[in-house]
Amino acid sequence: MNVRNLAALLVAAALTVSCADKPAATGPRLYILDCGDIRPMDPTLFGLKKEEIAGDASFVTPCYLVVHPKGNLIWDVGQVPDARIPDDGTEVVVQDLLKARRKLVPQLEALGVKVSDIDYIAMSHYHLDHTANANLFAGSTWIVQQAEYDAMFAEKAPRFYTPATYSALKTSKNRFIDGDYDVFGDGTVVIKQTPGHTAGHQVLLVKLARTGTVALTGDLYHYPEEVNLRTVAPAQGDQEITLKSRDALQESLKKSGGKMWITHDLIGFSKLKKAPEYYE
Known about the structure:
With 280 residues, the chain is of the alpha/beta class. The chain has a single domain (26-270), classed as 4-Layer Sandwich (Metallo-beta-lactamase, Chain A). Helix content is 20%, strand content 24%. It has five helices and 13 strands. Strand 7, helix 3 and strand 8 form a beta-alpha-beta unit. The N and C termini lie far apart (47 Å).
């Protein structure tokens, strides 16, 4: 190889390293994925009357992908396992209520993200409509409140927990937390402890450069109509603890000027951009 060719090769190698080291974005991007819906839904389960709900009372069940320069986080992973959903998009129904047509993994792959690219998995809580595909991400670091972990793997799992959907996480790389947690260490993606609905329920706060701060609320709320209520239906968790968690989240968002995206809110969900579009 002559000197000129060697020099060209070295320059090309240097550019390749430079490009590889350069982050895809200076801040997080948030993608919303379709993980099904829950219909019909009875608002009385949440202490509300049907006539108090504006529009369709059914739920939607999104999954979320946060792409950050320091890694990728999947938040909530659906209510029907990919293995049960046909490739042709035929609707699958679980327990006569949980419905889905789209697999989670192909939605990620359409964004250029493989399962092996997911650095962190975390879920708002471990009821079956949030954990369906958890086992697929056993190779990721799992961030979980210690109280939730203890309930998940108790000798007898609590109501609405389906251990078969998350059993592989028990031997994954775990990051146990007891409180709020800054995922990437820069304040842009923060897990906020919000117990009440379950012992280790948590909310994800994502600080986006253009959109502002959004809170992915899990089941801290189910309908927007609950936001101003001071009651919690008995079947939905501890009322006193839940109200304290709601107050703490609202105070946090008041300070940051942020907004809530109520996870199961069908009408609110319909107004949001879905992948491959994103928020930043």
